[in-house]
Amino acid sequence: MPRKTERKPDESPAPEVERIVAHYSRNRVVTEATDAARLLFSQSGFGKPTDDGKVHLSLMDTLYLLEKGRLKVLDGREREIAFETLLKQERREEPQLWVRYSVFKNLRARGYVVKTALKFGADFRVYDRGVKPGDDHARWVVYPVHESGSMTWHEFAAKNRVAHSTKKRLMLAIVDDEGDVTYYEVRWMRP
Question: Is 168 a catalytic residue?
Answer without folding.
Answer: yes
